[in-house]
């Protein structure tokens, strides 16, 4: 940063190369100015060729704030549009002069023009870009060095300056004269022998008037070479309440300083990191226990980054929008000291106390996964808010929760597939202890946690990308240890593409997975876009032996840390490759997208409705490694298409809500009867009917817990819940041998295991139809949904089904549907000698048990705990006058028994 005398010491982060220039080079407020912007230089915008607009104003003498701003942000009708010159370069003409263009009154003096250049939709933008406005015709500026403030001791430094007119010019370093001459330019070269801070000063004198420009530089000694302590690992090493060790892996880097709150962001040799091969390290002492410190690494005087392995970042862009309710007492970013994302360290932290010490992981075939996006699952969109809904998920019957990416990502509102810091939980959802409490609470309820992990790519604000960056082409540089210069995938790429053939990337992947399993106790991972874990060119669909080796190596490490951890791949490559992956060692799993075929069936368009590909047996997998789903975060919602595009015949119309929901219930019966693991996307069990493209694809979606008030949606929930409970109780539904007939409008599925046989039939057409229902044997069978017996006299029996009708027959009597569905709990009450009365109730509710009630909890239908009492008596009188009308769940602990019940509050 340049300063005009008088000299004031102020260290500010380095500027990039000359993104913005002016003509004339020394503009005054009374002349026209042409601004040229080169987007290929370092900026947040990146190399750009589309329409570009200027958010622009001026700074006035005596004030540091923007004044006389033209138009309003992202208003293309009022803000100036730049002229594209080609090759990423743009031009803006300010005419007839600066004062007139910005409507600056004669009583004010303009000191700077200020710009933020943005894309037409306002989603991409530069940093603040200033242009100095000079107050006289005589001015001088240091033109070299440009954008660099750190130099190595004994290196040669070229210094140049330009003057607005011929004058007596001089260049000094501190008080030492380096060169002088008359003219409009001056340059010299000097050797930097002394270390520390130095002032470069240029002066121009003419007719008794002198003007100056200055640049503060730091001359660094060569870093000391010393082996780091053997206990030091990459990232932050907490040694005591007053001392930490920092370690950064930085191959081919020369000189690194730690800057932060502990040294007022000022480099000195006390904060120069020692070098140990490819590692740089330092020990920081005399820290205040429990105080948070923000810090960055200043690398070769060129770039500042946060610590790639830190568990909390401070973000100048996003943190200001995080409320105290979400993250209390969030440390304030030091915007007057630095720029860019930074890391946070804190000694003397109180460790989270885990309450659940043991839990059981379901076998793969028994996995019932619920995928959710923390942002859109609750109104608050926080870790804590999800905890309040766990009772709902437990009643639904799932045993695994897959959380979409929650490590730090760019912005606060996201799906999370734009990650930058892999070891820090995103603060937009809450604190790291909030996340641990969520995982702890999930385990406490007998469910497990799958973390959605993005290791195909990182976004460009990732410190490992920024450390080795090609400014000109806005992409990782060729010497980046972790990233490819460009993605070898010719069809799909995002951000910076990890080079999974690199040993540096492989070590990083292992560190990431170990960290989350050890520190946060996650039970496994769903890896995003694993077909991209290769350097083989193409779209990633073909069989790729090198990719198989990469994924097997990764899985081996995960299993070495946690032998029963789940490894789930979003792969979508050749089926032969997925067969290999799912049969390897402990068995990886792959996502199985049945959305299109299931949705064709639910809409009543049956030519392409065969959903056999959702069966791991149909795909020839040796193990139950196919995580099949009808919906995921990436797919259109079944109900949306039912209501928009459903078929009809006569009075039967799938675009009607009740009918559309019944179609989804029929699909669910078939889906959950296919063997192997299954996944539900959030609110699929209630028939979520907002399009995936509502508020744009990754935009926030309405949170619809009010669906629980709709009896038709509750019926769909009941089918989901009952089928999930059948899967938990009867292995025939999870690992039975399938016989499938799933093409056309009428479909059938047979299951057989250990003498237990199931026949499921359904009419996915829009008119009544007959089906030759297959049965394994004659005799008495039991229809699950109606509870009726059915006499089977032939192994192929003709049955007529109405449109949308489905039946599930078992040769063993199953629990009644109404008993498995969670809207009826009377049998549980009777079995445990607990009475709840009156029901419905208006003001008072009595709960009576045959032994002392130790704990009683009331939950809303969506699983939120609203009251908890410990009566220590057998009869409890509850005042419910203040509850809103509706349905509530009771959890009653008495002695060694836990009873679940339900009551209705009604005036």
Automatic annotation (TrEMBL):
Entry-linked CDD domains: AmyAc_4
GO biological process: carbohydrate metabolic process
Annotated keywords: Signal
Glycosyl hydrolase family 13 catalytic domain boundaries: 371-727
Segment forming the signal sequence: 1-18
UniProt-listed Pfam families: Alpha-amylase (PF00128), Por_Secre_tail (PF18962)
Key word Signal present: yes
Entry annotated with the keyword GTP-binding: no
Entries under PANTHER family matching the protein: GLYCOGEN DEBRANCHING ENZYME (PTHR43002)
Family: Belongs to the glycosyl hydrolase 13 family.
Name under which the protein is recorded: Putative secreted protein (Por secretion system target)
């Amino acid at each position: 940063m340049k300063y005009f005398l008088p000299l004031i010491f102020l260290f500010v982060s380095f500027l990039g190369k000359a993104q913005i220039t002016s003509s004339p080079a020394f503009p005054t407020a009374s002349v026209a100015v042409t601004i040229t912007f080169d987007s290929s230089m370092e900026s947040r915008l990146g190399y750009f060729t589309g329409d570009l607009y200027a958010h622009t104003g001026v700074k006035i003498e005596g004030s540091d704030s923007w004044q006389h701003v033209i138009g309003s942000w992202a208003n293309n009708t009022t803000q100036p549009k730049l002229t594209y010159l080609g090759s990423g370069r743009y031009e803006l003409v300010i005419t007839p002069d600066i004062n007139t263009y910005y409507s600056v009154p004669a009583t004010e003096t303009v000191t700077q023009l200020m710009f933020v250049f943005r894309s037409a939709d306002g989603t991409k933008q530069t940093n603040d870009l200033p242009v100095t406005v000079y107050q006289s015709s005589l001015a001088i500026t240091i033109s070299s060095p440009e954008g660099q403030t750190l130099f190595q001791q004994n290196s040669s430094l070229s210094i140049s300056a330009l003057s607005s007119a011929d004058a007596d010019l001089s260049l000094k370093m501190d008080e030492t004269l380096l060169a002088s001459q008359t003219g409009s330019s001056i340059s010299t070269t000097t050797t930097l022998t002394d270390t520390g801070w130095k002032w470069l000063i240029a002066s121009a004198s003419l007719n008794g008037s002198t003007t100056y420009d200055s640049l503060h530089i730091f001359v660094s000694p060569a870093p000391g070479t010393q082996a780091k302590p053997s206990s030091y690992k990459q990232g932050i090493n907490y040694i005591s309440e007053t001392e930490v060790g920092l370690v950064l892996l930085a191959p081919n880097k020369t000189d690194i300083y730690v800057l932060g709150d502990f040294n007022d962001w000022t480099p000195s040799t006390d904060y120069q990191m020692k070098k140990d091969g490819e590692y740089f390290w330092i020990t920081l002492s005399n820290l205040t226990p429990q105080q948070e410190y923000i810090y960055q690494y200043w690398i070769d005087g060129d770039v500042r980054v946060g610590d790639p392995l830190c568990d909390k970042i401070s973000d100048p862009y996003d943190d200001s929008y995080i409320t105290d309710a979400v993250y209390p007492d969030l440390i304030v970013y030091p915007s007057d000291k630095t720029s860019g994302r930074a890391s946070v360290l804190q000694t003397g932290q109180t460790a989270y106390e885990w309450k659940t010490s043991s839990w059981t992981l379901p076998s793969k075939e028994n996995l019932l996964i619920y995928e959710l996006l923390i942002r859109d699952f609750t109104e608050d969109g926080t870790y804590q808010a999800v905890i309040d809904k766990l009772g709902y998920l437990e009643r639904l019957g799932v045993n695994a929760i897959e959380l979409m990416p929650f490590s730090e990502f760019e912005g606060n509102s996201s799906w999370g597939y734009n990650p930058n810091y892999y070891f820090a939980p995103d603060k937009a959802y809450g604190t790291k202890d909030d996340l641990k409490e969520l995982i702890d609470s999930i385990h406490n309820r007998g469910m497990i946690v799958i973390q959605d992990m993005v290791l195909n790519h990182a976004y460009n604000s990732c410190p490992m990308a920024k450390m080795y960056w090609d400014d000109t082409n806005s992409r990782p540089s060729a010497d980046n240890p972790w990233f490819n210069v460009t993605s070898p995938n010719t069809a799909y790429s995002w951000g910076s593409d990890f080079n999974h053939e690199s040993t540096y990337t492989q070590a990083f992947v292992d560190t990431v997975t170990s960290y989350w399993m050890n520190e946060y106790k996650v039970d496994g991972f769903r890896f995003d876009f694993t077909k991209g874990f290769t350097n083989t060119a193409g779209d990633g669909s073909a069989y790729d032996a090198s990719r198989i080796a990469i994924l097997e190596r990764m899985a081996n490490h995960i299993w070495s840390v946690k032998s029963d951890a789940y490894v789930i791949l979003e792969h979508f490559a050749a089926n032969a490759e997925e067969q290999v992956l799912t049969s390897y060692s402990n068995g990886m799993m792959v996502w199985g997208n049945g959305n299109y075929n299931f949705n064709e069936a639910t809409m009543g368009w049956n030519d392409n409705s065969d959903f056999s590909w959702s069966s791991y047996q149909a795909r020839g997998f040796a193990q139950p490694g196919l995580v099949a789903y009808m919906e995921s975060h990436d797919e259109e919602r079944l109900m949306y298409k039912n209501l928009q595009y459903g078929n009809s015949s006569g009075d039967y119309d799938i675009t009607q809500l009740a009918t559309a929901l019944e179609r989804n219930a029929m699909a669910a019966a078939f889906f959950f009867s296919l063997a192997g693991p299954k996944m539900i996307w959030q609110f699929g069990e209630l028939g979520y009917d907002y399009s995936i493209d509502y508020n744009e694809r990754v935009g926030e979606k309405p949170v619809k817990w009010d669906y629980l008030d709709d009896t038709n949606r509750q019926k769909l929930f009941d089918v989901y819940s009952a089928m999930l409970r059948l899967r938990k109780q009867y292995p025939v539904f999870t690992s039975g041998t399938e016989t499938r007939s799933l093409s056309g409008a009428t479909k059938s599925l047979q299951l057989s295991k250990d003498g237990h046989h199931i026949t499921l039939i359904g009419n996915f057409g829009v008119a009544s139809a007959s089906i030759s229902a297959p049965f394994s044997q004659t005799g008495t069978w039991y229809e699950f949904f109606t509870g009726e017996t059915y006499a089977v006299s032939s192994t192929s029996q003709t049955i007529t089904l109405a449109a949308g009708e489905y039946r599930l027959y078992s040769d063993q009597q199953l629990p009644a549907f109404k008993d498995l569905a969670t809207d009826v709990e009377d049998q549980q009450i009777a079995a445990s000698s607990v009475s709840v009365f009156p029901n419905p109730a208006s003001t008072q509710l009595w709960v009576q048990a045959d032994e002392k009630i130790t704990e009683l909890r009331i939950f809303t239908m969506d699983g939120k705990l609203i009251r908890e009492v410990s009566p220590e008596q057998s009869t409890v009188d509850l005042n419910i006058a203040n509850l809103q009308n509706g349905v509530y769940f009771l959890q009653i602990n008495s002695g060694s028994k836990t009873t679940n019940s339900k009551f209705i509050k009604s005036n």
